Automatic annotation (TrEMBL):
<keyword id="KW-0732">Signal</keyword>
<feature type="domain" description="DUF6299">
    <location>
        <begin position="31"/>
        <end position="143"/>
    </location>
</feature>
<dbReference type="Pfam" id="PF19816">
    <property type="entry name" value="DUF6299"/>
</dbReference>
<feature type="signal peptide">
    <location>
        <begin position="1"/>
        <end position="22"/>
    </location>
</feature>
<protein>
    <submittedName>
        <fullName>DUF6299 family protein</fullName>
    </submittedName>
</protein>
<dbReference type="InterPro" id="IPR046266">
    <property type="entry name" value="DUF6299"/>
</dbReference>
Length: 144
């Protein structure tokens, strides 16, 4: 399995387990943010591209922007890969592109995206998630 696909799958699993708060150990710095653009793209082959911005500081371990998508409110969220983040306090763009491994297909229309800015820390000796920021947003999928 390619490393990018493996990281995307791991990020999606962690995203699904993400607490409602930004950080499982307390509130994340208000300066740390992740946004989701209101329009996303779906290609004819089912590949989805999600975009937005992020800003974080103080990451000591690897930090990623992970994302997931669903169109039906009762459906499972599907991970759409992950992007490595740079935590230097500068607002940066992120783009995640992927296609569900199942037979699920996305189409033009309303959808919901979850994006999480998450760090893997080894404070306890095991890689555990530290959530810097989280955002859920309604989007419109367009063909293209």
């Amino acid at each position: 399995m390619p490393v990018r696909a493996l990281l995307g799958a791991a990020a999606a699993v962690l995203l699904l387990a993400a607490p409602a708060s930004a950080d499982a150990r307390g509130t994340a710095d208000a300066y740390e943010t992740v946004t989701v653009d209101p329009t996303a793209r779906v290609a004819p082959d089912g590949t989805v591209t999600l975009t937005g911005t992020y800003r974080c500081t103080g990451g000591t371990g690897p930090v990623f922007v992970s994302s997931s998508l669903r169109q039906d409110p009762d459906a499972v969220r599907y991970g759409v890969n992950g992007t490595r983040a740079i935590c230097d306090g500068v607002e940066r763009r992120w783009t995640n592109t992927g296609r569900p491994a199942t037979a699920t297909t996305f189409h033009s229309g309303p959808a919901h995206v979850e994006a999480t800015l998450m760090e893997l820390t080894t404070d306890s000796g095991l890689p555990l998630p530290r959530f810097h920021a989280h955002r859920g947003q309604a989007v419109t999928l367009t063909e293209g």
